[in-house]
């Protein structure tokens, strides 16, 4: 059973998610928080698997709460951030704070439930409508200092190809088609990259691909 902590300052949002989660096999609500401070306290006390985190809340915002929750010792819960399309700066901050994914609030509720399951399973999930724009902006470098691809120690040439495609936002299935390998092999390469680069999830691999110059803003 995946236990979920709902964090949002709007009671109607929490209520809607609670009702839907109650009808979803394998998911249950561990608790509710109306602000970041409460989310941090409840995450420590209730040890949920996933925290669904709003960004804009009175007091401690969702970014700072995400940072504190993901930095907790042991095995902290995954954080799935809810945001809006125009909140680019908030999304960048959420990724840096350790969020495993983010969604826009106008997505279908069933998609949000699926995202909770995906994040709980250890994957990352980013709303398709904002993925490339936000990651490109997140990884953009000053024009005066263009990125230069750097060698990736301990990563094979094939794994570097896979890392580049992950950075471009491709799924395992798309990577397998691009490289003419099986989906299982693509998934294995991604798993080895996560281990070799000590990355928490796929979001960190994307960020690494940009920071190392394997992908540049605007590529797709």
Automatic annotation (TrEMBL):
Residue ranges constituting the HTH luxR-type domain according to the UniProt record: 148-213
GO terms (BP aspect): phosphorelay signal transduction system; regulation of DNA-templated transcription
SMART domains listed in its UniProt record: HTH_LUXR, REC
Residues found modified as 4-aspartylphosphate: 54
Domain Response regulatory: 3-120
UniProt KW keywords: DNA-binding, Phosphoprotein, Transcription, Transcription regulation
One Pfam family here: Response_reg
Designated name of the protein: Two-component system response regulator
The organism of origin for this protein: Streptomyces laurentii
């Amino acid at each position: 059973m995946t236990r979920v902590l709902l964090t949002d300052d709007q009671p109607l949002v929490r209520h809607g998610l609670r009702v839907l989660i109650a009808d979803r096999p394998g998911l249950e609500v561990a608790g509710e928080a109306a602000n970041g401070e409460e989310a941090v306290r409840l995450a420590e006390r209730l040890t949920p698997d996933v925290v669904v985190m709003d960004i804009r809340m009175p007091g401690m915002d969702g970014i700072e709460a995400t940072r504190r929750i993901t930095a907790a010792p042991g095995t902290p819960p995954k954080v799935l951030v809810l945001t809006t399309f125009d909140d680019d700066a908030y999304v960048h901050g959420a990724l840096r704070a350790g969020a495993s994914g983010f969604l826009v609030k106008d997505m279908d509720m069933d998609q949000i439930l699926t995202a909770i399951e995906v994040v709980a399973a250890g994957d990352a999930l980013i709303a398709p409508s904002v993925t490339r724009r936000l990651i490109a902006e997140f990884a953009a470098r000053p024009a005066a200092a263009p990125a230069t691809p750097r060698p990736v120690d301990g990563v094979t040439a094939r794994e570097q190809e896979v890392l580049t495609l992950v950075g471009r936002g491709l799924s395992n299935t798309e990577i397998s088609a691009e490289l003419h390998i099986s989906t299982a092999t693509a998934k294995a390469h991604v798993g080895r990259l996560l281990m070799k680069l000590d990355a928490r999830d796929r979001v960190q691999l994307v960020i690494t691909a940009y920071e190392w110059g394997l992908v540049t803003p605007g590529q797709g």
